[in-house]
Amino acid sequence: MTLTAQSADGTTIVYERTGTGPALIVIGGAFNTRHSAGDLVPLLAVHFSVYAYDRRGRGDSTDTHPFATEREVEDLAALIDAVGGTAMVYGHSSGGAVGLYGAANGLAITKLAIYEPPFTPPIGFESVRAWTDAIQAAVDAGDRERAAVLFLQGSGAHPGMIEGITAASWWPGMRAVAHTLPYDLSFLNDGAVPIELLRRVNAPTLVMFGDDSPPWAENVATTAADALPNGTTVSFAGQDHNVDPAVIAPQLVDFFTDEGGR
């Protein structure tokens, strides 16, 4: 079922509901739309009402300028209100960062699970700020392809990997939302774990990573869990940043159905 919610600045957020049960909002990361979690959603919808949404500027959601991280927090707040006033949240990559910012700012998130929030410096750029500026310049020039390639480069993708991605069937979809990549980067705290922000997150929080991911993923997860008032970590053997839905789904179900939050 496709529905809409109105954010505080008038932006229309489009979302879909699948399944029945307690509300669970799924937040995608860079290049994601509400369809990106498609293989994960049915695994969770057996237990929950799963809400996947197009973050502002992506898919069918609208956008309002100027952008600020506060606007995406307001988008999440509007969605939580629309699904009943409270919700559990799972966020992947920068979507996990959005969830953390939302929880730290007092949104009614009862439990939060995040996978590899990328609070880490980019590869080949002096800082997240420099990386963002380069991508924004490409966006302003109307060159979404270059914006997407710059993002991949800063994420550590080697030339052969980028060549394979740009030749893949899903590349046009990635390119279509490349103008929102600066939004993702705005949540990265210039590549450092936002300790003070995490200390304001009261919801039980599960921080996950794959042991085939780069070392930063484990470092971020353990640092974040230590800073969170009620944080724990879980690692997945043989998994990288693109975690297998069949692997992560049982852990999410256990976490979100456990009354203790652990």
How does the major sheet shape up? 8 strands, mixed
CATH topology grouping of the largest domain: Rossmann fold
CATH architecture label of the largest domain = 3-Layer(aba) Sandwich
Total count of strands:
8
Structural class by sheet pairing and helices: alpha/beta
Beta-strand percent range = 15-25%
Give the helices and strands as they follow along the chain: EEEHEHEHEHHHHHHEHEH
Q: Strands of the biggest beta sheet: in what spatial order?
A: 1-2-4-3-5-6-7-8
Helix content: 25-40%
Outline, from the CA principal axes?
A: globular
Provide an overview of this structure.
By secondary structure, the chain is of the alpha/beta class. The protein folds into 2 domains: 2-120 and 192-257, Rossmann fold (3-Layer(aba) Sandwich); 128-184. It contains 11 helices and 8 strands. The protein has an 8-stranded mixed β-sheet with strand order 1-2-4-3-5-6-7-8, with helices on both faces. Strand 7 (205-210), helix 10 and strand 8 (231-236) form a beta-alpha-beta unit. Helix 2 crosses helix 3 (94-104) and helix 4 runs antiparallel to helix 5. It is globular and about 45 Å long. The mean pLDDT is 97.
